[in-house]
């Protein structure tokens, strides 16, 4: 949940997403900074007569500066990941940090270094801004650099707290994993995160600090999410994708009406449809499709999107997803977990050894497997 957001741009093909927490937080930063800008100037001995731009303008500039700082913080994680041969699937910018979703898990010691790179970059930006504030610049520009230095120092320190979902929690997990194993280390870091969230929340309520209460909710949700993901992985680990997928798939063409395809899926009790090119002949339902002929995938939820209902002649091409991840029947089912739970994909295509499409994994398939395996006490019982 904490790594969902709106894609605002891409960096070298990596989607950069904006989370709702940052959308709400930046205007707050702009308001607080603008209201305190003159006080900051007084604290560093800058006369108010030397301030020319309105405080609201500086508040907005500093909010944008914090946004860039958070982006650089996450890019530091990605740079270390790429240097270790790990592909980055997405970056989600959030309040006081972000989430960089990797293509695969990395060794604990590497994860610790990757996590530490973010706060280290924030401290580096803080030092650079502090040095810039010492240059012979306009007084108000020096005040702005000083405020940005303080903001980045707080950002780095906050993210070093040894609890999920902050970077410090990942550093702690990486250090503990060598002794406790990845699951117990995750549980310890997540439990500490929940405990800190409770303390933040209580202090925020007692001090009537709404921001601290929101931070507490943010931390608790992140810790609980990471703990839940670890438990789900344990349930699915070793289970081949073939045992989770559904093969109840139909076919559709991009120029077909979405409503007609939806009715066909309902009548035939199908989970979704593969959108194939118009030149591809229809195949028997038990045959496999060459993925080169598959243009995309539509599920029931794709066809049910409200915006399609407003356009009577909306086609499947408007509803289909083209960036669907692909796995193989023998792959570990846990490999589909991150893509589906994080919301990066609504379905995962399953290929056989001959690279033909044989099935689909949707969030519903994953939830069903988790529920039944959980009720059965695991795979081996």
From TrEMBL:
Which residues are listed as membrane-spanning? 20-37, 57-82, 112-137, 143-164, 197-221
Gene Ontology biological process terms from the UniProt entry: proteolysis
- List UniProt keywords, sorted A-Z: CBS domain, Cell membrane, Hydrolase, Membrane, Metal-binding, Metalloprotease, Protease, Repeat, Transmembrane, Transmembrane helix, Zinc
Binding note for cofactor: Binds 1 zinc ion per subunit.
The cellular component terms of Gene Ontology attached to this UniProt record, alphabetical and capped at eight, are: plasma membrane
Predominant cellular place of this UniProt entry's protein: membrane
What is the active site of this protein? 74
The cofactors named for this UniProt entry are:
Zn(2+)
Binding residues annotated for Zn(2+), in chain numbering: 73, 77, 167
Against InterPro entries, the record matches this protein to: CBS_dom, CBS_dom_sf, Peptidase_M50, UCP006404_Pept_M50_CBS
| PANTHER family in the cross-refs | MEMBRANE-ASSOCIATED ZINC METALLOPROTEASE M50B (PTHR39188), STAGE IV SPORULATION PROTEIN FB (PTHR39188:SF3)
The similarity annotation says: Belongs to the peptidase M50B family.
Name of the protein described by the UniProt record? Zinc metalloprotease
């Amino acid at each position: 949940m904490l790594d969902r957001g709106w894609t605002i741009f891409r960096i070298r093909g990596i989607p950069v997403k904006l989370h709702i927490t940052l959308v709400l937080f930046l205007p707050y930063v702009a308001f607080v900074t603008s209201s305190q800008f003159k006080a900051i100037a007084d604290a560093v001995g800058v006369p108010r007569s030397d301030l020319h731009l309105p405080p609201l303008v500086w508040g907005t500039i500093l909010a944008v500066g914090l946004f860039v700082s958070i982006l650089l913080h996450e890019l530091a994680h990605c740079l270390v990941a790429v240097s270790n041969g790990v592909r980055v699937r997405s970056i989600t910018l959030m309040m006081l940090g972000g989430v960089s979703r990797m293509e695969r898990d990395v060794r604990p010691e590497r994860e610790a270094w990757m996590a530490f790179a973010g706060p280290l970059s924030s401290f580096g930006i803080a030092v650079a801004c502090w040095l810039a504030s010492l240059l012979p610049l306009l007084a108000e520009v020096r005040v702005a650099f000083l405020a940005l230095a303080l903001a980045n120092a707080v950002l780095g320190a906050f993210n070093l707290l040894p609890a999920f979902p902050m970077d410090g929690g990942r550093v702690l997990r990486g250090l503990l994993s060598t002794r406790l194993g990845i699951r117990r280390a995750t549980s310890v870091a997540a439990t500490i995160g929940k405990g800190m969230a409770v303390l933040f929340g209580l202090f925020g309520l007692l001090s009537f600090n709404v921001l601290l209460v929101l931070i507490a909710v943010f931390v608790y949700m992140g810790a609980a999410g990471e703990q839940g993901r670890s438990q789900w992985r344990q349930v699915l680990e070793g289970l081949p994708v073939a045992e989770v997928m559904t093969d109840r798939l139909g076919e559709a063409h991009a120029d077909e009406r979405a409503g007609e395809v939806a009715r066909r899926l309902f009548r035939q009790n199908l989970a979704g449809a593969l959108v194939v090119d118009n030149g591809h002949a229809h195949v028997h339902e038990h045959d496999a499709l060459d993925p080169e002929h598959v243009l995309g995938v539509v599920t029931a939820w794709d066809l049910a999107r409200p915006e399609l209902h407003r356009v009577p002649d909306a086609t499947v091409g408007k509803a289909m997803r083209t960036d669907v991840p692909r796995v193989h029947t023998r792959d570990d089912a846990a490999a589909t977990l991150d893509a589906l739970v994080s919301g990066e994909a609504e379905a995962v295509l399953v290929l056989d050894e001959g690279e033909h499409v044989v099935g689909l994994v949707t969030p519903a398939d994953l939830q069903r497997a988790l529920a039944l395996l959980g009720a059965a006490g695991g795979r081996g019982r």
